[in-house]
Each structure stands twice: as structure tokens, then as C-alpha cells.
Write a structure and sequence with these properties.
Bound molecules: D-gluconic acid, magnesium ion
CATH topology of the largest domain: TIM Barrel
Distance between the termini: 46 Å
CATH architecture of the largest domain: Alpha-Beta Barrel
Order of helices and strands: EEEHHHHEHEEHEHEHEHEHEHEHEEHEE
Oligomer: single chain
Strand order of the largest sheet: 4-5-7-8-9-10-11-12
Number of helices: 13
Largest sheet: 8 strands, parallel, barrel
Length: 402
């Protein structure tokens, strides 16, 4: 079997997605997600100009060898653009392998470890009352786990708080919007949110929260401590994790479980966090961490240290990534939870898929490969539109983390 053609499909059914399609001489094809929010076209160039020419004529069944060739062969290793491009190809190759074998991807990985994949949805509101109402909606939809974010009094806009509740989309402008942030105001507010939620709904549901890289280690330690009575499932991205040692300090102070890793792209970004058991959940996912081949390595390392998976699953990860992630989650022994932000109907139409939601769980489906396809004719109706995530400044104008 040989690879005869590779292409990239860029489409914007409400938001931008980059898709790799690999075709073989036997007519079987595979697709993979290669979307990097706000940097989409860099990945397109990396694929078209540098990776695709190396693939023509290769045996698509040799996934490991191709992965090593693309990773080691670049000389310049790692980085989000490189690893997202490799992920797009890797996912497409696993899709091909599944189709050739006539087996769903989770069977190729080692078979089913669970019946369904527990997911968490996103509840958010401009204030605590609105967030409480939104959490109630997710409970009614059958979710077992819900992430809660609320607007902070005195700050005009807050990360995670959206106008369009079911389809949160932060990449909303042709140039980055500027937001204003105050950690002090946030820190006073966030325990009140969870106090209210536990008072209203009790302790039956898992509650999660994302601090989106905005705290210093000692602030994160304080927030973790303040939230302990509310038994969070996790506190996410408490601090920027470039400095992995920061987590030692947080860990010394709080038993609130910690999650990190949605912006990591390699095992080396999480090596210290995992081996020193400084986190509880690793959030790397298929599209940004080198595909199934590399994500499996990260999960295996994590398993040795009792760290569980909790893959990123925001709307900027396409349904292809979600499909592949669900197969991965169905297999991975140290599964924790999967993030699930629903895509719009427009997006779902472009990417017909086999997975479905039922009573708080997503089910990967049993179609061969990862079970997601792309309707190229429909995709062509939605051309690329520049769209960026916001940036953040402190109240005095200092540039900060978004
Ligand atoms: C999450 C993430 C997202 C990111 C987005 C950036 O936890 O789902 O933090 O909201 O901000 O995926 O592209
Ligand atoms: Mg996050």
C-alpha cells in the first residue's frame, strides 16, 4: 500500500478548521485534525511545503516510522506548529489503519477499557446567579461533570464567559480583542461561586474550574485552599506551566486536584510534572501533542505516576480530533475525564461523525478508524476567515496572560 496524495482542507463553518487528508493507491483514505487556533495557516504551510512531499510513495501502515521520520527528520523538534502538523498526519494514518483492518481505532489500541467516556460541559454566566442557572441546564441534560466559570464584578469580561452559551467561541475578532484582568478581584469572587453551587446542587456532580494561566504559584495555592471545601474535580491551568517547578509550591499547600497541559505539545513539556506527581490530570490531546502515537506515550508515562488523562476538547479542536480522542479515551487505562464543548450544527454538518452523547457519556461508535469524515463540498462553502483569541491586560495596562 502506498500514499499517493496528501492535501489540506481549510474550512470555516462558524470557526476555522484545518484538516489533513491522505489518500492511498488502494482507494482508502484517512483524515486528521491539524487546527491550531489563531495560527492555522502556519500549520497549512508546514504541511504543504515541508511534510507532504516526504510522504508520497510511503507505506501508510508504517505509522511509527513515519512519525519518527517527521519528528527526528526536522532537526528542529517540537513546538505547536510542528506537533500539530505531525498530529494531523498521524491521526489520518491511524484512520487508514482502522479502515484497512475493518476495526474501530480503540480496538487497534488494545480494546475497550470502559463502556462510555465521561465528559464535562461548560456552564458560564455573567454573574453567580446566571452561572447557577447554566449549571442546572447541564444537570438537566444529564451531565455528570460540569465546568463552572462566572463573570467577576468590576471586570468587564472574563475568560470562559460567553454570550452564546452552548457554543462558546473565544476566537472572535480579526485582530485580538483586548480584555482587562484583575487577579485580586477574581480571587475574592471564585470561592463564592462554588459555595453557591454546592449549596444549591449538593455534592453529587463533579465540578471543575479553569483559572486559564492567570495566577502566580502562591495565588494558586490560596485559590486551591479556598476551594477545598467544595471538592472540585480539578483546578485547571492555575499557573502558566513553562516553569514546571511552580507546581511544587502549589502542591505543598493544597489538596485541590490540579490539571494542566492543553497547550503542551510533547512529553517533555509534562515530564517533570508527571514524574514528580505535581499534577493529577494531564490535558494534552491528539491534535496538539503529536497525534495518537505521541499521546499514547504521554498517557503511559502518566499511568506510572497515577496521573490520569483529561484531554482538551474545546470547539477549536475539530470533530475529527474529538472522534480520535474518544477512541483513545475508550482504550486508555488511566482515563480521567474528557472535555466536551459542543460544536455548532454547521460544524457537525461539515464533519459527519459516529460519536454520540448519552447521559453524561460520549460513545466513540464502532465505525472503522476514528469514525469521523469530512463533507468536502460543504467545507468549500466556508472559506477561511482570520480570527484570533483575545489578549489580556491588567487594570494598569500591563500585558498579561489570557
Ligand atoms: C479549555 C481551554 C479553551 C482555550 C481554547 C484556546 O479549557 O477548553 O482553556 O477555552 O482557551 O481552546 O484555543
Ligand atoms: Mg483550559
Amino acid at each position: 500500500m502506498k500514499i499517493v496524495n496528501c492535501k489540506v482542507i481549510v474550512t470555516c463553518p462558524g470557526r476555522n478548521f484545518v484538516t489533513v487528508k491522505i489518500e492511498t493507491d488502494e482507494g482508502v483514505y484517512g483524515i486528521g485534525d491539524a487546527t491550531l487556533n489563531g495560527r492555522e495557516l502556519s500549520v497549512v504551510s508546514y504541511l504543504e511545503d515541508h511534510l507532504f512531499p516526504c510522504l508520497i510513495g510511503r507505506d501508510p501502515q508504517q505509522i511509527e516510522d513515519i512519525w519518527q521520520y517527521l519528528y527526528r527528520g526536522a532537526y528542529w523538534r517540537r513546538g505547536p506548529v510542528t506537533m500539530t502538523a505531525i498530529a494531523g498526519i498521524d491521526t489520518a494514518l491511524w484512520d487508514i489503519k482502522g479502515k484497512v483492518a475493518g476495526l474501530p481505532l480503540y480496538e487497534l489500541l488494545g480494546g475497550r477499557s470502559r463502556d462510555g467516556v465521561m465528559v464535562y460541559g461548560h456552564a458560564n454566566g455573567l454573574d453567580i446567579e446566571e452561572t447557577v442557572d447554566e449549571v442546572a441546564k447541564y444537570i438537566d441534560l444529564g451531565y455528570k461533570a460540569i465546568r463552572a466559570q462566572s463573570g467577576v464584578p468590576g471586570i468587564p469580561s472574563t475568560y470562559g464567559v460567553a454570550k452564546e452559551k452552548m457554543y462558546y467561541e473565544p476566537a472572535d475578532a480579526e485582530l485580538p480583542t483586548e480584555n482587562v484582568w484583575s487577579t485580586e478581584k477574581y480571587m475574592n469572587h471564585v470561592p463564592r461561586l462554588f459555595d453557591k453551587l454546592r449549596e444549591k446542587f449538593g455534592f453529587e456532580h463533579h465540578l471543575l474550574h479553569d483559572a486559564h494561566h492567570r495566577l502566580t504559584p502562591i495565588q494558586a495555592a490560596r485559590v486551591g485552599k479556598d476551594l477545598e471545601p467544595y471538592r472540585l474535580f480539578w483546578l485547571e491551568d492555575a499557573v502558566p506551566a513553562e516553569n514546571q517547578e511552580s507546581f511544587r509550591l502549589i502542591r505543598q499547600h493544597t489538596t485541590t486536584p490540579l490539571a494542566v497541559g492543553e497547550i503542551f505539545n510533547s512529553i517533555f513539556d509534562c515530564q517533570q510534572l508527571i514524574t514528580e506527581q505535581l499534577i493529577d490530570y494531564i490535558r494534552t490531546t491528539v491534535v496538539h501533542a503529536g497525534g495518537i502515537t505521541h499521546l499514547r506515550r504521554i498517557a503511559n508515562l502518566a499511568d506510572l505516576y497515577n496521573v490520569r488523562t483529561g484531554s482538551h476538547g474545546a470547539t477549536d479542536l475539530s470533530p475529527i480530533c474529538m472522534g480520535a480522542a474518544l477512541h483513545f479515551d475508550t482504550w486508555v487505562p488511566n482515563f480521567g475525564i474528557q472535555e466536551y464543548m459542543r460544536h455548532t450544527e454547521q460544524t457537525d454538518d461539515v464533519f459527519p461523525h459516529d460519536y454520540h452523547f448519552d447521559k453524561g457519556y460520549l460513545h466513540a461508535g464502532s465505525a472503522p478508524g476514528h469514525g469521523v469524515d469530512i463533507d468536502e463540498k460543504l467545507a468549500a462553502k466556508y472559506p477561511y476567515r482570520p480570527a484570533y483569541l483575545p489578549v489580556n491586560r491588567l487594570e494598569d495596562g500591563t500585558m498579561y496572560n489570557w
